[in-house]
Amino acid sequence: MKYAKLIDEARTAREMAYVPYSKFKVGAALETKDGRIFRGCNVENASYGLCNCAERTAFFSAIAEGYKPGDFTALAVIGQTDGPIAPCGACRQVILELGGNALPVVLTNLKGDVFETTAAQQLPNAFGGADLN
Ligand SMILES: O=c1ccn([C@H]2C[C@H](O)[C@@H](CO)O2)c(=O)[nH]1
Ligand SMILES: [Zn+2]
User: Which residues are annotated as catalytic?
Assistant: First the structure.
């Protein structure tokens, strides 16, 4: 399968999750055009609203290393869900802005269910930078 390696990286990232409150581990792996992979896991906090999802951790890590919107080829996400995991709304907004409309988003779970979608499909009728005038 085309995304097998990226999904495996997301699975590895999931093991790093810091989830003392929800106990729900999520992993993400973001591939760059120059062949790097940035892993992300969810990182929780006793102040629950500060919890950061795996998807945003992966993107923010890549941005902090100098990567820009347009530099990414695919994002994989994995969690222990019945079907492929569904990113939260906040992550969909970030994935769209930093990944771009066409970014392949590969949603999966520990059982191996896979749903291939795109950033834009995951957030129809989105608010974006062009709306700021
Ligand atoms: O796609 C998702 C969905 C949830 N979570 C995290 C947020 C929180 O730490 C925990 C429970 O919502 O899972 C993610 O990281 N990614
Ligand atoms: Zn999220």
Answer: 55
